[in-house]
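user: can you give me the structure for this one chain? tokens are fine.
assistant: on it. calling the predictor now.
[tool input]
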Amino acid sequence: MNSSEIPILNNVAIDTDFDGLDEIDETVAELPVIQLHLNADACGIRLDKVLGTLVPQYSRSRLQQWIEAGHVLVDGEVARAKMTMYGDETVIVQPQPAPEEEAFKPEAMELSIVHEDAAILVINKPAGLVVHPAAGNWSGTLLNGLLHHFPALSGVPRAGIVHRLDKDTSGLMVVAKTLIAHTDLVRQLQARTVKREYLALVWGTPNASGSIDAAIGRHPRDRIKMAVSENMTAKPAVTHFTRLATGMLDRRPVSLMMCQLETGRTHQIRVHMQSIGFPLVGDALYGKQHLTVVFPRQALHARRLGLLHPASGVAVEWSTELPVDFADLLARAGIQSF
């Protein structure tokens, strides 16, 4: 039976307050044990697929990891990978926190928190702050600050970070505080339902509006850069843009653009705008080197963020003002701040 043939499992009792069985690790108090009483609808279906249907708040791959690690019991016995259900079993699942690399340590850091509740954090990231540890930036990142602010994030993949902003891009980011919220937000990003709106100052005068639908992959000669590509490994990328205002900077025309993302590829706006001949002001990687003295970073700010709240399903949205350096840049160009 393939996944398209799996029936909907009806009338299965799910108890998240179960407190029995010594074999299950009860040390993770914030992730309660889940007990399932299967019925005939599960007959002939593989365990991981049954759990994928009945426990949709966790991804299939994570559930498979828990089975293989011995954190799932079937009728009191440790479950076996790919075992098939008969339809009258009792299944007990102990959700486990995701292991984090030891390099990810909490660090005290001032965070500009726009919103926080039990499921998510919305951060206004300043320019110059690296989001995630990597070669050359193993400390002092947003992830380190998040772990200090809310230590329980050590049990969520990448400390809850589901999307990133480049080091020198400022603006709004959402962070998941729980595994369930993380899974939900990742699925929203994959479904392209998360609304992300940016302000960008570019060299030149693009069309009043338009869309760029061009796949992005690693640059064929410079591994640091990304590029529009027709290579089979390139990923689909779509950017919509609207010209808001024009001005002059260093005696050259510039335009303030509103960019909306359908996808979230690395350097997407920077690559897409450069591909049609309008690189971002201050972009040392994709722009002209002699023009970067005008502004010390790419002029890009994530102004607005909208999504469905993982806990309530209600549409929510946040916006933030331009940082001082970007607002001053617009003033120099004779453009009213937005």
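assistant: here you go. Helices lie at 47-54, 60-68, 142-149, 179-190, 268-275, 324-332. The CA atoms of residues 114 and 322 lie 14 Å apart.
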